Amino acid sequence: MIDHPVGDILKGKTSPTLLSVAATATVSEAVALMDEKGLGSVLVRDAAGAMAGIFTERDVMRRVVRQGRDPRTTPMSAVMTPDVRKVPSTESVLEVLRLMVEHGYRHMLVADGGKPVGVVSIRDLMRWLILPDAPIAHEGRRGEIRTRALDAVETLKQS
What we know:
By secondary structure, the protein is α/β, with parallel strands linked by helices. About 45% of the residues lie in helices and about 20% in strands. The protein has a single domain (about 5-159), classed as CBS-domain. The chain has helices at about 5-10, 25-35, 55-65, 75-80, 95-105, 120-130, 140-159, and strands at about 20, 40-45, 50-55, 85, 105-110, 115-120.
């Protein structure tokens, strides 16, 4: 599982993986969209429609709440993360997880040929690694999850 391409995770997601707002949108508008869709991030697009950054739950806490900004008037351009790290959909789950752990990312943009195709969260990666594809009898789930988690940790240590 850990050597599968991250694009496989995107295929299995039930919610839209690419939501965006304009750089002129307010924090309140972006948060309302994130809440409605149950996502922890949105992409931010400039006036020409090109990707300008990403806005995450962490940005809300650090750049809005902590700095005392008014979410009803603060534009995305003032609080987004402008330099977004990207990985191709062919990148392994292991490498994406390594990058996220090493750099403290909770969301990673997946882009092919410079075009965004989705966003994966650390939760998406953990769900992919820990929860099996096929149902397991209730009494076996705990041992299976523990084994998969230990395998993932051991693989990361060896990287």
